[in-house]
Write a structure and sequence with these properties.
The protein is an all-alpha fold. The chain has one domain: Arp2/3 complex 21 kDa subunit ARPC3, CATH 1.10.1760. It contains eight helices and two strands, in the order H-E-E-H-H-H-H-H-H-H. It has a two-stranded antiparallel sheet. A hairpin with a 5-residue loop joins strand 1 and strand 2. The chain is globular.
C-alpha cells in the first residue's frame, strides 16, 4: 500500500453481506446427518459464501460464524456451540474453513476472480481443511482414547466426504456464479 492510500473499510452493505453469509453457513450446518464427523451442508455454505461474496467478505463471514459458535450461539452442527466444540474432535474442520477462506482470498487476489482460479482455490481450500481437520482430529482423539492410525481417521473423516464435498463445491460455485452479478449490481450505488 502506498503512503497516500487509505486502507479500505467495510461499508454497511459489506457488513450486511457478512452477517447473511454467517447465517447461511449456520443454517447449512444445522442440516446434518450425524456420523463420527457429521455430514452437513456446512461446506456448501462455506463454498457458496466465498464464491458469492468474494474472499474478503466470505472469509469474514466464516470468522463471524466461528466466533458466534465460540461464544455460545448454537450455530454448529446439531445446534452445538461453545469452545468445547472447537477444541473437540471435529473442531479442526470448523477452523479449517477459516484457513480455506484465507487461502481462497490469497489465490483470487493473486490470480483474479476468474472461474479457473476460483475453482482451484476452492479445491485447495478443501484439501487444506481436510488436512488441518484430520491432524486436529488425530491429536484430540489420541489424547482422549489412545493412538489411532491415519488410515482409520481418513476412513472416518475424509473418504466418505470427498465425493459429496466435490458435488457441494460444484453446486455452490454454479449458484454463486449466477447470483454474484446481482450482488455486484446491488452494491454499485
Amino acid at each position: 500500500m502506498k503512503n497516500n492510500e487509505k486502507p479500505q473499510k467495510f461499508r454497511t452493505v459489506d457488513l450486511a453481506y457478512i452477517a447473511i453469509g454467517a447465517a447461511l453457513i449456520a443454517v447449512c450446518a444445522w442440516i446434518s446427518i450425524p456420523l463420527t464427523v457429521p455430514f452437513t451442508l456446512q461446506t456448501f455454505g462455506v463454498f457458496f459464501v466465498l464464491s458469492a461474496l468474494g474472499g474478503k467478505r466470505g472469509t469474514c463471514s466464516i470468522l463471524v460464524y466461528i466466533l458466534l459458535g465460540a461464544v455460545g450461539i448454537p450455530v454448529f452442527s446439531g445446534f452445538a456451540s461453545g469452545i468445547g466444540v472447537l477444541l473437540g474432535n471435529t473442531g479442526g474442520y470448523i477452523l479449517g474453513f477459516l484457513l480455506s477462506g484465507l487461502l481462497y482470498t490469497g489465490i483470487t487476489r493473486l490470480f483474479g476472480n476468474k472461474l479457473l482460479p476460483e475453482i482451484i482455490a476452492l479445491l485447495l481450500g478443501l484439501v487444506l481443511c481436510y488436512a488441518f481437520g484430520t491432524a486436529w482430529f488425530m491429536f484430540v482423539y489420541t489424547r482422549a482414547n489412545g493412538a489411532v492410525g491415519l488410515g482409520t481417521v481418513l476412513s472416518w473423516c475424509v473418504l466418505p466426504f470427498v465425493l459429496p464435498d466435490l458435488i457441494k463445491l460444484a453446486l455452490a460455485r454454479t449458484i454463486a456464479g449466477r447470483i454474484r452479478p446481482l450482488l455486484d449490481k446491488s452494491t454499485a450505488f
